[in-house]
Amino acid sequence: MTQHEDNLGGAAIRPAPVDSGAFLQVRELRVHFPTDDGVVRSVDDLSFSVDRGKTLGIVGESGSGKSVTSLSIMGLHKRGTAKITGEILLDGQNLVGMSPERVRLLRGKRMAMIFQDPLSAMHPFYSVGSQIIEAYRIHNKVTKAVARKHAIDLLDRVGIPNPKSRVDDYPHQFSGGMRQRAMIAMALSCDPELLIADEPTTALDVTVQAQILDLIRDLQAEFNSAVVIITHDLGVVAELADDIMVMYAGRAVEYSTAADIFNSPQHPYTWGLLGSMPRLDRERTERLQPIKGTPPSLINVPEGCPFNPRCAYAGTNGDLSFTVRPEFRDVGGGHHIACHLGAEDRLRIWDTEIRPKL
Ligand SMILES: Nc1ncnc2c1ncn2[C@@H]1O[C@H](COP(=O)(O)OP(=O)(O)OP(=O)(O)O)[C@@H](O)[C@H]1O
Ligand code: SF4
Ligand SMILES: [Mg+2]
Prior knowledge:
Blueprint: H1 3-7, E1 24-35, E2 38-50, E3 55-59, H2 66-74, E4 83-90, E5 93-94, H3 100-109, E6 111-114, H4 118-121, H5 128-139, H6 144-157, H7 163-166, H8 176-187, E7 194-198, H9 206-223, E8 226-231, H10 234-237, E9 243-248, E10 251-257, H11 258-263, H12 268-276, H13 320-323, E11 328-330, E12 336-338, H14 343-354
Parallel strand pairs: 3-8, 3-9, 6-7, 7-8
Antiparallel strand pairs: 1-2, 1-4, 4-5, 9-10, 10-12, 11-12
The chain binds adenosine-5'-triphosphate (ATP), iron/sulfur cluster (SF4) and magnesium ion.
Iron/sulfur cluster binds next to loops.
């Protein structure tokens, strides 16, 4: 809650969409990095939840705090670098403040992550197979032979050809797409109940992208895991996500079902993201233009709405967008936005200016 909102009558701010029964619940998460230039507010009051069997898509431009959020859940920030407050409840246990040893035990067994860059998650000097075997044996008291068989099965599952021989290859012997698959195999080695996939398809060609997303979907169906897919590209989560959270400058700006986000988005930033999605059937000139400008520094976030320097509608309500941070609120049926535009304005703009150009 900002000082401004406090001053506006002190009405209780509705919490963001957190289902109190969900497997993962993130509540009022703040991740700040003190640096020589000032405090980087990478995540600033973020709340969301994901239940078993469900997929949440987190979407936002580069630097919006997506990876910092996932690394916080996994307990993977370098010790002492990040100041983390709020709650991250995994099946009811709060991970914030938990000892690194206990979080390490949960990682792999109950939660796992597919990283943006597979090479960063794999050790270059150990074979792919030995890394999967290692991950599996940390949590399962099995012989090396059993773990090796499990690794080969997993590589087969994720579509690595000749897994029996490729299991002994080193990461550099795999192509980008195969490394991504191998990392998925590693992440899935202990059937995690929560899987976070951070840009699982960036840098892969379109066919491999589709295969990787299909794979995540199949594995989720099999294990009934809670899945978070992080991407800067709304297209990636269009078919996969049940719900979508759009992030800007370390905060949620819109949250709803995927169908709502695509059919009746209500936040100007989401309109911009939709306008940036590639379309082959229309000339760019007759379409909505991609969002101009760049996201703000997270050390000096603009006063009022952080999106105001880039928003075409910032002047709609006098100087409100420049002075008061918009509350993240329910605008109907659980659809949340953080924007000062009133319902009438939003509908009018969507119907007359945005939808015809998408
Ligand atoms: N250890 C750190 N110290 C200081 N600032 C950091 C640290 N880690 C991340 N940040 C900053 O936090 C912000 C959010 O970074 P994050 O990696 O979460 O972005 P992202 O949404 O994942 O972007 P991308 O789409 O490029 O992966 C960035 O401004 C980044 O520079
Ligand atoms: S609050 Fe104002 S600046 Fe922010 S998105 Fe809404 S209209 Fe644009
Ligand atoms: Mg990232």
